[in-house]
Amino acid sequence: MSKKIKLVDLFAGTGAFSLAFENTGRVKTIYANDIDKHSKSIYDENFNTKLHLGDITEIDVKDIPKMNILTAGFPCQPFSHAGLKLGIDDTRGTLFYDMARILKEKQPKFALLENVKGLISHDKGHTLKIILKQLSSIGYKCIIDKDEINKDSDAVLKRKAKNMVLKSKDYGVPQNRQRIYMVFWRDDMDGFYYPDALNISTKVGDILELNPLKKYTISDKLWTGHKRRKKENKKAGKGFGYGIVSNTSEYTNTISARYYKDGSEILIRQNGQNPRKITPREAARLQGFPENFILNTSDVQAYKQFGNSVSVPVIEAIAKNIKKQLELSNA
After folding, report:
1. Which of 216, 232, 251, 331 is the most exposed place for a label (fewest CB within 10 A)?
2. Structure confidence at residue 84 as a pLDDT band (50, 70, 90)
């Protein structure tokens, strides 16, 4: 088969979904959208497709081309408890609604939705149930049967949805990042199987630069503050103040969009001096981006972008299995 598999990437950010799917071959991103101007500048530098800058709530579905796959790392928002009755209209006013209306209109064969692991327990499972039920109602299946989605309690669905959670460290990325990856396929498709862990050993030293700039070493004031908060949190039973690793550590904590503020979740131990933050290039490596990926010139924006991103190798493993199913269906 030679024809391209067409991808639409919503909430595209720096394009990790686009990159991962295109890495598998034959997949072409035909449309990408994000509201952030900094994401657009980096996306446009790294991809042939130019990112459509704009608010998804204002997009006319007719302006989005037909696709085989839709991807979206959408924000997690609470839904009204009056929901579960009217289909996707119940979610009006949330960004999930705008993503779902595109799915309903365009009916791609597959959709891959990513979110934080906490989505499973968000609003005591109510949010998860609405997402599963609403996409089920517009013609999509997932690894939880439709009958179970409609009948099971929020608690049961929460338990079953844990099978959709993958860990970045299981796919060759030295980061303890857990995310829920919800794969949906159209009712006329045969299904999907989540990828097995690759069992690749990881080491933080593999992503570290040899001679990072001194500016990434944290100040005495910040280091003192980190240690004080860790001591206070431990006393209060919270157990977190900062996370410090060395080049021999197996993996880091999860990098977040707030990393630029103080670097507390990932600090690199240094002999004879204060620890340091990871550099933007190291942050890119920590998410599985290649060396030739062009970074934002602003450290703040780069940290935000990679903190918000998905891990490329995880998406690539999922993408390979989606691609297999599409090829079986003669996409």
Report:
1. 232
2. low
The residue-averaged pLDDT of 113-125 equals: 91
Q: What pLDDT, in 10s, does the model give residues 55-69? A: 999 999 999 999 999
The amino acid at 139: G
Largest interatomic CA distance in the chain = 62
CA angle 265, 252, 299 (to 5 degrees): 55
Q: Are 203 and 248 in contact (CB under 8 A)?
A: yes
Q: Residue 173's CB: how many other CB atoms inside 10 A?
A: 25
What mean pLDDT is reported for the chain?
A: 93
Structure tokens at 222: 């910040």
Amino acid (1-letter code) at residue 323: K
What does the pLDDT read at residue 96? 92
Which tens digit of pLDDT belongs to each residue from 266-325? Answer: 999 999 999 999 999 999 999 999 999 999 999 999 999 999 999 999 999 999 999 999
pLDDT at 263: 95
Amino acid in the structure at residue 147? D
Active site residue 142: no
What Cα–Cα distance (Å) separates residue 54 from each residue in 35, 67, 95, 302, 309? 5, 19, 13, 20, 19
Q: Which residue has the tokens 């705008």?
A: 98
DSSP β-bridge partners for residue 72 = 10, 113
Contacts of 108 (CB under 8 A, 6+ apart): 8, 66, 67, 68, 69, 70, 186
Rounded CA separation 153/144 (Å): 13
From 59, 76, 116, 156, the catalytic residue: 76
Burial of 322 (0-12, 13-18, 19+ CB in 10 A): buried
DSSP state of 217: B
* Nearest in space to 299 (alpha carbons), one of 285, 314, 287, 284: 284
